[in-house]
Amino acid sequence: MTVLVHEWVTGGGLAGAPMPQSWADEGRAMRRAIAADFASVARNRVRVIVTLDARLPDDPGPWTIERLGPEQELDRLRALAGEADATVLVAPETSGTLARLTRDLRTAGARVLGSSPEAIDLTGDKHRLAAWLRSRGIDTPPSRIILPEAGLPPDATYPAVLKPVDGAGCIDTFYVVDARSLPACARAMSQALLQPFVAGVPMSASFLIDGQGRAWLLGVGVQRIAIRGDRFAYQGGRLPAPSRAAEPQLRPALGAIPGLRGYVGVDFIWDPEAEHATVLEINPRPTTSCVGLTQLLPPGRLAEAWLRVFESGPADAACFGGLAGLIHGGRRVAFDARGDRVTDDGGVLG
Q1: CA of 182: how far to CAs of 78, 234, 265, 325, in Å?
Q2: What b-and-e string marks burial along 163-186, b requiring 16 or more CB atoms within 10 Å of the CB?
Q3: Angstrom distances, CA of residue 236 to CA of 103, 225, 334, 343
Q4: Which of 155, 219, 226, 329 is most deeply packed, by most CB within 10 A?
Q5: Are 297 and 303 in contact, with CB atoms under 8 Å apart?
Q6: 150 Cβ partners below 8 Å, 6+ apart?
Q7: What is the DSSP secondary structure assignment for residue 155, as one 8-state letter?
Q8: Is omega for the bond preceding 148 within 30 degrees of 0, making it cis?
Q9: Under 8 Å CB-to-CB from 43, ≥6 apart: which residues?
């Protein structure tokens, strides 16, 4: 079979437009990890095609490269996805990019190994998602939409987090001590989301979700997030976390979102003393953690399971249930903000 891997940033989605280096580095790491894993599926039964922005240098590997340039990237992408047996999309939810691509390729007849456009729309709107989860009894920070140019509301709870309504990761995410500490650069946002700051350990969990909505844990990791001045900065992660205790508290959040499918990540804050998880975001797509997961699992194992959750019929519990055991039962790895420099980590995580 043929699998197309389209990582939007480095794969032509920004063809003809500036490409931030940090986005390109992280995108390249995810693209290479995912493509190599699909190419390693048992008996070499998967041919992998990856898209590459025409401006970028060759990036050889066990895959075929298709270059995409300005003004033809979408038509060519539709054709490639329509010819492939399956397509993996890695794109931000920002400005509806991932949902729009998913709709477009499915309309063109492609089989996309990801969540429904409706699930992507819901999880991509952080204000709507917070209200949705809270109405279903899931602990997530209360949020309100503000207009930064008008200043911060004095009646909000501080310290607080200010971030885009539909942003990805820590991009343009600010730490504000009080109503008087709005960063000048934050005023450029037309609107933003304000949430109380939740103290604890930033963590993430990766799941595979099948057609019946059953979520199979891959692994739980620790996110290295620092506050530099008034901004949050993602510095990478470590896998696995010492404990999977948060898993039962995360499952209701996944079950509350109809249409989640394939690889899904959950960002949350863990209070180790109370053993309590506060859900921050749900990512309906591959995240940087996939770089570490592919290092901890046998080659091709993640890709094979990913394909299986899109097969008709009941999922094989023995296959999926053993993945978390493999992740949490062996060595540990650490990776930087770019998803690169994956190294063995024998130290204590946290």
Answers
A1: 43, 21, 30, 45
A2: bbbbbbbbbbbbbbeeeeebbeeb
A3: 31, 8, 8, 12
A4: 219
A5: no
A6: none
A7: T
A8: no
A9: none
CA-CA distance, 331 to 333, in Å (whole number)? 7
Strand partners, 233: 226
CA 141 – CA 133 distance, rounded (Å)? 10
DSSP letter for 141, please.
Answer: -
For 321, list phi and psi in degrees, rounded to 5. Answer: -65, -25
Q: Kindly give the confidence (pLDDT) of every residue in the chain, 350 residues in length, as a single tens digit, with 9 standing for 90 and above.
A: 999 999 999 999 998 899 888 788 889 999 999 999 999 997 768 999 999 999 999 999 999 999 999 877 889 999 999 999 999 999 988 889 999 999 999 999 999 999 999 999 999 999 999 999 999 999 999 999 999 999 999 999 999 999 888 766 556 889 999 999 998 888 888 889 999 999 999 999 999 999 999 999 999 999 988 888 888 888 888 999 988 999 999 999 999 999 999 999 999 999 999 999 999 999 999 998 999 999 999 999 999 999 999 987 766 676 777 899 899 988 899 988 777 767 776 543 33
The full DSSP string for 6-32 is: EETIIIIITTTS---HHHHHHHHHHHH
- Asked if residues 210 and 261 have their Cβ atoms less than 8 Å apart, the reply is yes
- pTM, entire model: 0.92
Q: Are 264 and 215 in contact (CB under 8 A)?
A: yes
CA atoms within 13 A on the CB side of 2: 13
Residues 6+ apart with CB under 8 A from 147: 190, 191, 192
Question: What is the secondary structure of 53-107 as a DSSP string?
Answer: ETTSPP--SSSEEEEE-TTTHHHHHHHHHHHSSEEEEE---GGGHHHHHHHHHHH
- In 138-246, beta strands by DSSP E: 144-146, 160-163, 174-176, 192-196, 201-209, 215-228, 231-239
Q: Beta 174-176 vs 86-90: how paired, if at all? A: unpaired
Q: How far apart are CA 119 and CA 286, in angstroms?
A: 14
